[in-house]
Amino acid sequence: QLQLVESGGGWVQPGGSLRLSCTASGFTLEDYGIAWFRQAPGKEREAVSCINYSDARTYYADSVKGRSTISRDNAKSMVYLQMNSLEPEDTAVYYCAADPANCHGYETMIGLAVWGQGILLTVSS
Questions:
Q1: Helix and strand numbers, DSSP H then E, in the chain
Q2: Which distant-in-sequence residues (6+ apart) come within 8 Å of 112 by Cβ?
Q3: Which among 35, 56, 20, 40 is positioned nearest to 106, based on CA atoms?
Q4: Longest dimension (CA), the chain
Q5: Alpha carbons 54 and 33: distance in angstroms, whole number
Q6: How many whole angstroms from its chain centre is CA 13?
Q7: Torsions phi, psi for 34 (to 5 deg)
Q8: pLDDT values of the chain reduced to their tens digit, one per residue, 125 residues
Q9: d(C-alpha 113, C-alpha 31), whole Å
Protein backbone atom coordinates (compact mmCIF):
# COMPACT_ATOMS: atom_id res chain seq x y z
CA GLN A 1 0.00 0.00 0.00
CA LEU A 2 1.44 3.33 -1.07
CA GLN A 3 1.40 5.76 1.82
CA LEU A 4 2.40 9.32 2.64
CA VAL A 5 2.37 10.68 6.18
CA GLU A 6 2.72 14.35 7.11
CA SER A 7 4.30 15.56 10.31
CA GLY A 8 5.64 18.76 11.84
CA GLY A 9 2.44 20.75 12.06
CA GLY A 10 1.26 22.68 15.06
CA TRP A 11 0.63 26.21 16.28
CA VAL A 12 2.87 29.22 15.68
CA GLN A 13 2.50 32.97 16.09
CA PRO A 14 2.41 35.32 13.12
CA GLY A 15 5.89 35.86 11.74
CA GLY A 16 7.06 32.47 12.91
CA SER A 17 8.44 29.52 10.99
CA LEU A 18 7.69 25.84 10.73
CA ARG A 19 8.93 22.86 8.74
CA LEU A 20 6.47 20.28 7.52
CA SER A 21 7.64 16.78 6.63
CA CYS A 22 6.23 14.14 4.33
CA THR A 23 7.39 10.54 4.67
CA ALA A 24 6.76 7.99 1.93
CA SER A 25 6.45 4.22 2.15
CA GLY A 26 5.44 1.44 -0.21
CA PHE A 27 6.94 3.06 -3.30
CA THR A 28 10.11 4.68 -4.54
CA LEU A 29 9.90 8.36 -3.77
CA GLU A 30 12.35 9.32 -6.49
CA ASP A 31 9.90 8.11 -9.15
CA TYR A 32 7.45 10.92 -8.33
CA GLY A 33 7.18 14.59 -7.98
CA ILE A 34 5.93 15.44 -4.51
CA ALA A 35 3.48 18.28 -4.03
CA TRP A 36 2.08 20.15 -1.05
CA PHE A 37 -1.51 21.38 -0.89
CA ARG A 38 -3.55 23.08 1.77
CA GLN A 39 -7.16 23.69 2.67
CA ALA A 40 -8.12 26.53 4.96
CA PRO A 41 -11.41 26.63 6.87
CA GLY A 42 -14.23 27.55 4.53
CA LYS A 43 -11.99 27.59 1.46
CA GLU A 44 -11.18 25.28 -1.40
CA ARG A 45 -8.04 23.19 -1.44
CA GLU A 46 -5.16 24.93 -3.16
CA ALA A 47 -1.73 24.00 -4.45
CA VAL A 48 1.27 25.25 -2.47
CA SER A 49 4.46 23.77 -3.88
CA CYS A 50 5.98 20.85 -5.78
CA ILE A 51 9.41 19.32 -6.24
CA ASN A 52 10.27 17.08 -9.16
CA TYR A 53 12.59 14.09 -9.52
CA SER A 54 16.18 14.38 -8.32
CA ASP A 55 15.54 17.75 -6.66
CA ALA A 56 16.09 19.34 -10.05
CA ARG A 57 13.30 21.91 -10.04
CA THR A 58 10.80 23.39 -7.62
CA TYR A 59 7.50 25.20 -7.99
CA TYR A 60 5.67 27.57 -5.65
CA ALA A 61 2.30 29.22 -5.49
CA ASP A 62 2.41 33.01 -5.47
CA SER A 63 1.01 33.01 -1.94
CA VAL A 64 4.13 31.33 -0.52
CA LYS A 65 6.84 32.21 -3.03
CA GLY A 66 9.84 33.86 -1.44
CA ARG A 67 9.15 32.62 2.07
CA SER A 68 8.91 28.86 1.54
CA THR A 69 11.39 26.21 0.49
CA ILE A 70 10.56 22.69 -0.64
CA SER A 71 13.26 20.03 -0.57
CA ARG A 72 13.59 16.27 -0.72
CA ASP A 73 15.83 13.52 0.56
CA ASN A 74 15.23 10.51 -1.65
CA ALA A 75 17.46 8.26 0.43
CA LYS A 76 15.27 8.94 3.46
CA SER A 77 12.03 8.95 1.44
CA MET A 78 11.18 12.37 2.82
CA VAL A 79 10.09 15.73 1.48
CA TYR A 80 10.11 18.94 3.47
CA LEU A 81 8.33 22.25 3.27
CA GLN A 82 10.00 25.03 5.24
CA MET A 83 7.66 27.97 5.75
CA ASN A 84 8.75 31.33 7.12
CA SER A 85 6.97 34.59 7.89
CA LEU A 86 3.78 32.72 8.57
CA GLU A 87 0.51 34.63 8.80
CA PRO A 88 -3.02 33.67 9.85
CA GLU A 89 -3.90 33.20 6.19
CA ASP A 90 -1.53 30.23 6.15
CA THR A 91 -3.70 28.38 8.66
CA ALA A 92 -4.89 25.22 6.97
CA VAL A 93 -4.70 21.47 6.82
CA TYR A 94 -1.63 20.67 4.75
CA TYR A 95 -1.42 17.60 2.53
CA CYS A 96 1.41 16.03 0.57
CA ALA A 97 0.76 13.99 -2.55
CA ALA A 98 2.77 11.94 -5.05
CA ASP A 99 2.59 13.13 -8.65
CA PRO A 100 3.41 10.69 -11.47
CA ALA A 101 3.46 13.68 -13.83
CA ASN A 102 6.48 15.11 -12.02
CA CYS A 103 4.79 18.39 -11.02
CA HIS A 104 3.55 19.21 -14.51
CA GLY A 105 0.05 20.52 -13.93
CA TYR A 106 0.07 19.63 -10.23
CA GLU A 107 -2.09 22.66 -9.46
CA THR A 108 -5.05 20.86 -11.01
CA MET A 109 -4.81 18.08 -8.39
CA ILE A 110 -5.69 15.59 -11.12
CA GLY A 111 -3.97 12.24 -11.47
CA LEU A 112 -2.11 12.23 -8.17
CA ALA A 113 -1.15 8.72 -7.12
CA VAL A 114 -1.59 8.97 -3.37
CA TRP A 115 -2.36 11.57 -0.71
CA GLY A 116 -1.33 11.89 2.88
CA GLN A 117 -3.93 12.22 5.60
CA GLY A 118 -3.21 15.90 6.19
CA ILE A 119 -1.79 17.81 9.13
CA LEU A 120 -2.99 21.04 10.73
CA LEU A 121 -0.93 24.22 10.78
CA THR A 122 -2.43 27.03 12.84
CA VAL A 123 -1.02 30.57 12.78
CA SER A 124 -2.56 32.90 15.35
CA SER A 125 -1.79 35.23 18.23
A1: 0, 11
A2: 35, 97, 98, 99, 100, 106
A3: 35
A4: 40
A5: 9
A6: 20
A7: -120, 125
A8: 789 999 999 999 999 999 999 999 987 877 899 999 999 999 999 999 999 987 679 999 999 999 999 999 988 999 999 999 999 999 999 999 999 999 999 999 999 999 999 999 999 99
A9: 11
CA 9 to chain CA centroid, Å, is 11
Length of the chain: 125
Residue 124: Cβ within 10 Å count: 11
| DSSP secondary structure letters along 29-70 | GGGSEEEEEEE-TTS--EEEEEE-GGG--EEE-TTTTTTEEE
pLDDT of 104 = 93
